[in-house]
Structure formats: structure tokens, C-alpha cells
Design brief:
19 helices; mainly alpha; about 400 residues; Na+/H+ antiporter like fold; globular
């Protein structure tokens, strides 16, 4: 395990640095490191790490979402209003419908298999988007119209919505039928997650003001509470839907609103933790990518992804219609909503293991989507924000 960790760090940081010099996103180097060191190439990552890969990726995601929560001002989200709500589900719905209609003629799958594929592809990646939006907020780009906050909030809820639809489509395929309560559970999960995070945040503010402790201890308490939220989501799933990841963001937002001085100090601490968490996240995402399945993804899969992304961008434009955003700002939001990585790596293989006839095709398209959209979205954000957003 120690050899694996050393290789992940040394090779990952080296490739990230080299690509950074070439004006390419460092995360691409980290994903390439995971692919090269992973079980489908050189097989140099220990099984002990691969067996807990999903948990390690989730920990990294929790760290970046906690940091995001500490930067989200509730007043900014209130000012954005309607577009923030629409961005949570309209672009993803457009992409799922597009894949459902286009995949049968392009890839020869059934309508239901195409719907499952659409649900796998439609989730945007907070792990790619959130760090970049935080950088924009810290450097002042797009802050006057709360563009980074809008994109961060939308991306987080987008994942919940898409995963619920994926579960519903898989239920239909397995013969258990369509569960309408699954769709109703989306707003319930969002509301309960926000309430849980906000209430817990207020309790923690009271504790931090009442009892003196080092900021490092406060960071550990915040992380422990965030881990508890995600565990609670799993425990309560059979009884009541709660979004643990939204609770994590709401926790940070409540802390910022009630104890701003501390929130800003802790955000700096989380920025340092993210340096290590980021490389583990993207290297392990790369390790989960089975490049052998790229052989099954021909031109039809590339065309499908490209057309689905274009239709997704139409959904973003409709969500932002009649807002004060300029054309370039709306186009930036469309580009920022392209990257896919974490969800596709997590659920891409589920249809294949569940016996879906087109499971191999779905996994191949999911792998291809990661390889195309993660660097495309990251490069697009990095290349356009200075030109298209107001500082």
C-alpha cells in the first residue's frame, strides 16, 4: 500500500505539473496517472486501496463540498433565484431525453437501455466544477451576478436528481416497475438535507463560541459531522430520503452566515486539505476507468456524446433565459456544466453487473464521456472565465 501511495503522489503531482506548464488542467494528468497505474494497465495500485476506492473518492468529495459550503453566501443564492432551481434539473433532463432518443439509432440499443445510458451520462461532476468555481469566487470573477454560486449549487443537486432517475430506470428494467415515489423523493431529500445541515451548523456555531478549541480541531469536527451526514443518508434510505452531500454544503453555509470570521479561517484550512484529497480523487477515478471498453465505443458513441452535450447546453440556456446574464456569461455557464467524472466512474459499471443487455455499451460510453468531457470542461472554464466574466 505504501508503494502505491508514493506512486500516486509522485506520478500524479508530476503529470499534473507538466500539464499545467502546457496550459492544460492538472486533473487530466491525475486521471492519466490512475489509468496508467490502475488494474487495467500497469496494475501498481494495491488492492487494499482499490477495495476502498469508492469510500476514498467520497471523502475527497465531502472535503471539497464542505469547502464550497463555507464559501456560499445564502444572500447570493436568493438573489439568483429561479435560474438556480432550473439549473438543478433542466439541463440533465434535456441530456437524458437526447440520449434516449439518439442512442437507439446510433448504437442499436433499446429505448429503456438508452434511458439508463442517459441517466449514467447526465450527471455533472462537482469534483471538477466546484474547485474552479471557488477559484473564481476568490479571484472575483462572475461574483457580481453570483455565477459561481449558481453553478456550484446546481451541480450538487443535479447529481441527486440524475441518480434517482438512474435507480428508477434500473428498477423498470429489472421488472420491479416504475416507482413514482422515487421522483417525489428528490425535493424531500433536498429539503431535509438542507434542514439537517443548517440545524447542525447552528449547533456547531454555538459549541465553537462556547468552548475554546484550535481551528484544526474544528476542522476535524466539521469533517466528522459531514461523514455522519453521508452515513445517515445510507441508514435512512429505506425510511426517508435525505441528501447527505447537500447537508454538507448547508452545514458550511450556515457556519458562514452565523460565524463569518471562523468560516473564512476554516476555508483556508480546507483548501490545504484539498491538495491531497484532489489527487486521490482523480487518480482513483482514473483507476476505475477500464480503457479496454473504449474499443467498444466507436464513432457512434462519440457522436452521441457530442449531440447530447449540445442539447444539454440548450437546457442551460433555457434555464438562464430572462436573466441579467450576458450572452458570453450564459455561454460560460453552458461550458461549466459539461464535465463528467465521479458519478460515471461510480455507476457506469452497474448496468453491466446487473445483467443489462447493453451494459458493455453503456460502460464504454461512460468511460468515453469521462475522457472527453472532464478535460474539455476544465479547459473550457480555464480558458474563458477571464474573457467572458466580469471581475
Amino acid at each position: 500500500m505504501l508503494l502505491s501511495l508514493s506512486l500516486i503522489m509522485i506520478v500524479g503531482f508530476s503529470l499534473s505539473g507538466i500539464l499545467g506548464k502546457l496550459r492544460l488542467p492538472g486533473l487530466l494528468g491525475m486521471i492519466m496517472t490512475g489509468i496508467a497505474l490502475g488494474p487495467y494497465a500497469l496494475d501498481l495500485i494495491s488492492d487494499d486501496i482499490l477495495n476502498i476506492s469508492a469510500e476514498l473518492r467520497q471523502i475527497a468529495l465531502i472535503i471539497i463540498l464542505t469547502r464550497a459550503g463555507l464559501a456560499i453566501d445564502i444572500k447570493d443564492l436568493k438573489r439568483v433565484g429561479r435560474p438556480a432551481i432550473l439549473m438543478c434539473f433542466v439541463p440533465a433532463t434535456f441530456e437524458i431525453v437526447a440520449v434516449t432518443l439518439l442512442a437507439p439509432p446510433l448504437l442499436g440499443v433499446s429505448i429503456l437501455e438508452a434511458a439508463i445510458m442517459g441517466a449514467v451520462l447526465a450527471a455533472v461532476s462537482p469534483a471538477v466544477i466546484v474547485p474552479r468555481m471557488l477559484h473564481l469566487m476568490e479571484s472575483g470573477y462572475g461574483k457580481d451576478k453570483s455565477i459561481p454560486q449558481l453553478i456550484m449549487a446546481g451541480a450538487s443537486v443535479d447529481d441527486i436528481y440524475v441518480i434517482v432517475l438512474f435507480t428508477a430506470f434500473m428498477g423498470i428494467y429489472s421488472g420491479s416497475g416504475f416507482d413514482a415515489s422515487a421522483i417525489i423523493s428528490v425535493p424531500i431529500a433536498i429539503l431535509l438535507g438542507m434542514l439537517l445541515g443548517t440545524f447542525s451548523g447552528l449547533i456547531l456555531v454555538w459549541i465553537f463560541k462556547k468552548f475554546h478549541m484550535r481551528d484544526t480541531v474544528k476542522v476535524l469536527i466539521l469533517l466528522s459531522t459531514a461523514f455522519l451526514f453521508v452515513s445517515l443518508e445510507t441508514f435512512l434510505k429505506p425510511y426517508v430520503p435525505v441528501s447527505g452531500l447537500l447537508a454538507v454544503m448547508a452545514l458550511g453555509a450556515a457556519l458562514l452566515k452565523s460565524y463569518e470570521v471562523l468560516a473564512k479561517r476554516l476555508k483556508g484550512k480546507f483548501s490545504k486539505i484539498w491538495v491531497g484529497a484532489e489527487i486521490m480523487l482523480f487518480v482513483l477515478v482514473g483507476a476505475a476507468v477500464d480503457v479496454r471498453y473504449l474499443l467498444f465505443a466507436g464513432f457512434g458513441a462519440v457522436l452521441l456524446i457530442a449531440l447530447a452535450l449540445l442539447i444539454r447546453m440548450v437546457g442551460v440556456q433555457l434555464s438562464l433565459a430572462k436573466t441579467q446574464l450576458t450572452f458570453k456569461e450564459r455561454l460560460f455557464c453552458s461550458i461549466a456544466y459539461l464535465p463528467k467524472a465521479t458519478v460515471q466512474a461510480a455507476v457506469g459499471a452497474i448496468p453491466l453487473s446487473a445483467g443489462v443487455a447493453a451494459g458493455q455499451t453503456i460502460l464504454a460510453v461512460a468511460v468515453l464521456a469521462i475522457m472527453i468531457t472532464a478535460p474539455l470542461g476544465a479547459i473550457g472554464i480555464d480558458a474563458t472565465y477571464k474573457k467572458w466574466l466580469t471581475k
